[in-house]
Design brief:
Largest sheet: 5 strands, mixed
Strand content: 5-15%
CATH superfamily of the largest domain: Histidine kinase-like ATPase, C-terminal domain
Helix content: 40-55%
């Protein structure tokens, strides 16, 4: 936008300055023509009268003194030609004829081969031929410093335009930065509500919008938390009644349904809380120690989880959120592959990459992004028997966005899936 505004202003300036220069040049040429025509008429009349009164022997010596830049005198018949057709030449010939034509009959013609050269032929009182050789100047030459002045003027105005455009677009940059800063944690960055009335109004509207969004999200979390709390009581009563039932084939099915209901309620509340980010503050952590502790916990529980590679340096991040992201990815791999491989490596280009790999059925390429949507399950692998709610990957993606990280899924060569988490080092 700044470039477009600057281009429009500079183009308008060039057109306006070019038009002003053209009009000034035309007015200057017209004024100069009028002055020159009147000057030639007066000077030529006086010069012809002087030559007519001089003895023939002295006239030759006076010719250089009477010559001017635009005309000179020739003691002779001159060069014949056609009548003048150029506007300036015709006007000069007419003025000379009106000045001296009544006393000295004359003729005027253009010199052949010349762009604009006029000769006026007449005879003095003693019948001596005299030719006035005229070279009209259509315009005055420009001063050598004029182009530099115009260029300097353009540079000054272009600098002023640049400052004006930057001032005009600065609120838009601030608005874009504030919108980018409004992440999943919903911690708004208030814009200053000053400046021109339009900018102040837009800033107030944006700040109010941020506050409304934050309040709506908080209200939704409170509603989900209340629903979860209210559902816990009937679920507990139902569980007690099922436990008191005689051993029947339906008892185990009812207990499984109740566990699924409780899991759905807990996962739904957890997902809602990740939408406006956990209140956990970032701190310096040792990612290698965190991953080793997480993998050992799984191994102690008898799960087939391994760790290879090391980051080799500290990281400023949210440890609980990072632990939950990797844990959700490992749980996902264990559900559908029975094993998981956690892989870490040193930073490259300011980015730390953590990967969770499995040899499960994988995910079709056209579903690699869709599975991050809440409650989205693949019919071929996710069902109620596996305990999947369709929220594990959605929670992991939301937590990753709140940490300014990137979580993606990729097919693994030879079959399986790669879940890749990229963490940007602070200041990179």
């Amino acid at each position: 936008m700044a470039a477009r505004l600057a281009l429009i202003l500079v183009a308008g300036l060039l057109v306006a300055q070019g038009l002003a220069f053209w009009l000034t040049r035309m007015e200057r040429d017209q004024s100069m023509t009028q002055v020159m025509v009147g000057y030639i008429e007066r000077e030529v009349v006086a010069s012809v009268a002087l030559l007519d009164h001089l003895p023939p022997a002295e006239r030759e010596a006076w010719l250089p003194r009477l010559a001017r830049r635009s005309y000179s005198f020739i003691l002779g018949p001159g060069i014949p030609g056609q009548a003048p057709d150029a506007k300036l030449s015709a006007e000069i010939a007419q003025q000379i004829a009106e000045g001296i034509g009544t006393r000295y009959p004359l003729t005027a013609n253009m010199v052949p081969g010349e762009k604009e050269r006029l000769q006026v032929h007449l005879q003095l009182s003693d019948d001596s031929p005299l030719t006035i050789d005229i070279r009209p100047m259509p315009s005055l030459p420009l001063s050598g410093w004029l182009p530099y002045v115009l260029a300097a003027q353009l540079l000054v105005l272009a600098g002023c335009f640049y400052i004006a455009v930057r001032l005009a677009t600065r609120p838009l940059h601030q608005l874009a930065d504030a919108a980018d800063a409004l992440g999943p944690d919903l911690k708004p960055v208030r814009m200053p509500e000053d400046g021109p009335s339009e900018v102040a109004r837009a800033a107030r509207a944006f700040n109010a919008m941020q506050e409304r969004i934050a309040s709506y999200m908080a209200e939704r979390v409170q509603i989900l938390a209340a629903v979860s709390h209210d559902l816990q009581t009937p679920i507990t009563r139902m569980r007690l009644r099922v436990d008191m039932m005689d051993e029947e084939p339906q008892q185990a099915k009812l207990q499984q349904d109740l566990q699924e209901m409780e899991g759905l309620v807990k996962e739904g509340v957890a997902y809602a809380r990740t939408l406006h980010a956990a209140s956990e503050e970032p701190c310096a952590i040792d990612p290698d120690s965190l991953l080793e502790s997480l993998v050992l916990d799984y191994q102690d529980a008898g799960e087939n989880v391994s760790l290879r590679g090391r980051v080799g340096q500290t990281l400023t991040s949210r440890p609980q959120a990072l632990r939950r992201i990797v844990g959700n990815l490992v749980d996902n791999a264990l559900k559908y592959a029975g094993s998981a491989e956690v892989e870490a490596g040193p930073p490259r280009d300011g980015v730390i990459t953590l990967q969770v790999l499995d040899r499960g059925p994988g995910i079709p390429d056209d579903m690699l992004e869709a599975v991050f949507e809440p409650f989205r399950r693949l019919e071929s692998s996710r069902n109620r028997q596996t305990g999947g709610t369709g929220l594990g990957l959605a929670i992991a993606r939301q937590l990753a966005q709140a940490m300014d990280a990137k979580l993606t899924l990729h097919p693994r060569e030879g079959g399986g899936l790669i879940a890749r988490l990229q963490l940007r080092l602070q200041g990179s």
